[in-house]
Design goal:
The protein is mainly α. The chain is built from 6 helices and 2 strands, in the order H-H-H-H-H-E-E-H. Helix 1 crosses helix 6 and helix 2 runs antiparallel to helix 3. The longest helix has about 50 residues.
């Protein structure tokens, strides 16, 4: 037997977990003040991500500059004849190893944070009457927003309960959906 325990779940339960929050979100997105608040929240989240990456790069840059200054000072000390060659080589090797280790920790350039096209989502929300949607329309919305639906068995003591969890394509979807519940 494979990884799947073969539990049955009614389609209506999955729709409650996936479609209901999306309906609430789309209904809220038709309100102008909520639209601006969501745009602001998404921009702030993007800025926080960028600030975190910049801070990490700054910290590494400071360490590199400090080690390079130590290396330069060590070279000057050796050239001035103040330390022996063996001691110079030993310290130089240690500093170069530390520099190499820190350079290895440098993160790759942070790609721009891709945000969902909120204006396009708002346009969809404005132009649609959600109550009239059928399965094809909801299938398209789910395909665009849901990464996967996880169905798990949870042991609550007396009997096993089935838990349905949605993994959204964008981490920001959780905060968008939370805003829609208000």
């Amino acid at each position: 037997m494979g990884d799947c325990p073969g539990r049955n779940v009614y389609e209506s339960r999955i729709k409650d977990v996936v479609i209901t929050p999306l309906k609430r979100l789309l209904a809220k997105l038709s309100q102008t003040d909520i639209r601006e608040a969501l745009k602001q929240e998404m921009a702030e989240q993007r800025q926080a991500i960028l600030r975190g990456a910049e801070q990490a790069n700054e910290d590494i840059g400071v360490k590199l500059a400090r080690l390079e200054a130590r290396l330069t000072k060590l070279e000057d000390t050796y050239l001035d004849g103040l330390i022996e060659k063996d001691r110079y080589i030993s310290r130089r090797t240690a500093i170069l190893a530390e520099l190499e280790q820190i350079r290895g920790q440098m993160p790759a350039p942070t790609p721009p944070v891709a945000l969902p096209d909120l204006d396009a989502i708002f346009a969809i929300a404005q132009g649609l009457t959600i109550e009239d949607w059928g399965d094809p329309e909801w299938r398209q919305v789910v395909e665009e927003t849901v990464s996967k639906i996880v169905i798990e068995a949870a042991d609550t003591g007396e009997k096993k309960k089935t838990v349905i969890r949605v993994v959204w394509k964008w981490p920001e979807m959780e905060s968008l959906l939370a805003t829609a519940q208000v």
